[in-house]
Amino acid sequence: ASFDVPSEWNGTYYPSSIPETLTLYAVHPGTGYHSVDYVNRDTGENQMNFAEFDDSTEMNIDTENAEIQNVVINGNAGLLSIKKDQMIVCWGDGKEGFVLITKKIDRDTTLTIAESVTRVR
Fold first, then answer.
1. Does the pTM exceed 0.90?
2. Is 16 exposed, middle or buried (0-12, 13-18, 19+ CB in 10 A)?
């Protein structure tokens, strides 16, 4: 199966499962850190950010007053933080680290998006 990867994306991995209710808003290329934002097609509200980073990048995850769950993403240990209507999934594959932030998207869909992260280069 094929899926669309924005031409500006210079990361190695990208989610292949994006909910149809979302549309690409912005791609943020960088050195050691790449991210992409998706908004709700109808409301324009930012609902998803996916980021890939290497070991030169430090990441802080907001877990204050959040429900924390251990998860497994494609065989790799990860962390799921649930706080109000926002979920943050972070995991790594030994070379790259990933963070997926969703807002007003249910847990199962959020984990499906995370599980869909596929090597594109």
1. yes
2. middle
Q: Please report which confidence band the pLDDT of residue 17 belongs to, taking 50, 70 and 90 as the band edges.
A: very high
d(CA 24, CA 109): 17
Hey, how many other C-beta atoms are within 10 angstroms of the C-beta on 44? 10
How many angstroms separate the CA atoms of 15 and 36, rounded?
10
- E strand map for the chain: 13-15, 22-28, 33-40, 46-53, 67-73, 76-83, 86-92, 97-103, 117-119
Q: Quick: pLDDT tens for 75-90.
A: 999 999 999 999 999 9
Bridge partners, residue 52, by sequence: 34, 98
Query: Measured between alpha carbons, how far is residue 78 from residues 37, 45, 51 in Å?
Result: 21, 27, 14
Confidence of residue 105 (pLDDT cuts 50, 70, 90): very high
Q: Are 47 and 104 in contact (CB under 8 A)?
A: yes
Neighbours of 109 (CB within 10 A): 15
